[in-house]
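Notes from the 1:1 (GR / supervisor)

We went over the backlog. Supervisor wanted to see one worked example end to end before approving the batch request, so GR pasted a single chain during the call. The sequence is below; no edits were made to it. Supervisor asked that the structure be written out right there so they could see what the output format looks like.
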Amino acid sequence: MPWAKLMIVAVFAAVIYNLAAALWYMMSDQGQSKRMVNALSWRIGLSVGLIGLVMLAIALGWIEPHGIRPPR
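Structure output shown during the call:
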């Protein structure tokens, strides 16, 4: 299903964006605000959600992993 792969790419892009935002806030705020912590918290949450999404998509057969295939 192509929409599942697009969803994975979109969530991965959001993870990368939040990582870049945290770097920007770290350099510009000089530790005066919580924006960097919030961006890193979002990145962790999105990363955990992405792993869950990939596991769900594999379990439901929406995507198929390459390499070693688990027994069914």
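Supervisor's comment: Residues 2-29 form the longest helix (28 residues).
Batch request approved.
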